[in-house]
């Protein structure tokens, strides 16, 4: 049925299916795209986001990692892979994945968000709060991501007596991947 569509048409149709929350159609179209063009980083990225949306964490991890391997300078794919590692509890891998993003030009929201997540790995709540506030003060290219970072910041700013992360932070980070596909619903 889709054999007459080229890569750009498959991608556009998949994005349309994602925007309509037709996950099965989006997954089918993206699978065709990456089977036909296995070096299409955006196709792997979107397929991983759909897998995450469906709760298929291992497939999502594999897809985000593939997208980053194909395009190491694909910042949102790298960010989401780092975020996924953080959610899975692998702080060291999250930190090494996010580190290149922290070196993006200052004034870049994604760089500040990456610094905030790295600070979380290091149990540096004040550093995480400062970095997230800085990121939120920047121009926002991805509004759903900004919303996730605002919720995370609100949880981090909740005071605790022992200085540990507030209980709600884990919930926020666990819930964040539910929004991953929303980060990619625009053209590459």
Automatic annotation (TrEMBL):
<dbReference type="InterPro" id="IPR019734">
    <property type="entry name" value="TPR_rpt"/>
</dbReference>
<dbReference type="Pfam" id="PF13432">
    <property type="entry name" value="TPR_16"/>
</dbReference>
<dbReference type="InterPro" id="IPR011990">
    <property type="entry name" value="TPR-like_helical_dom_sf"/>
</dbReference>
<keyword id="KW-0802">TPR repeat</keyword>
<feature type="repeat" description="TPR">
    <location>
        <begin position="41"/>
        <end position="74"/>
    </location>
</feature>
<protein>
    <submittedName>
        <fullName>Tetratricopeptide repeat protein</fullName>
    </submittedName>
</protein>
């Amino acid at each position: 049925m889709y054999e007459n569509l080229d890569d750009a048409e498959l991608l556009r149709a998949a994005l349309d299916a994602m925007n309509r929350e037709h996950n099965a159609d989006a997954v089918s179209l993206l699978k065709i795209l990456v089977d036909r063009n296995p070096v299409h980083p955006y196709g792997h990225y979107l397929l991983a986001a759909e897998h995450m949306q469906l709760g298929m964490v291992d497939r999502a991890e594999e897809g985000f990692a593939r997208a980053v391997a194909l395009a190491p300078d694909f910042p949102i794919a790298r960010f989401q892979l780092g975020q996924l590692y953080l959610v899975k509890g692998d702080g060291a891998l999250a930190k090494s994945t996010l580190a290149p993003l922290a070196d993006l030009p200052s004034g870049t929201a994604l760089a500040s968000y990456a610094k905030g997540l790295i600070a979380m790995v290091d149990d540096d709540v004040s550093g995480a709060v400062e970095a997230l506030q800085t990121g939120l003060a920047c121009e926002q290219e991805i509004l759903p991501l900004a919303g996730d970072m605002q919720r995370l910041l609100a949880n981090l700013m909740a005071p605790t007596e022992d200085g540990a992360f507030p209980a709600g932070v884990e919930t926020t980070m666990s819930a964040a991947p539910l929004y991953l596909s929303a980060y990619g619903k625009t053209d590459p």
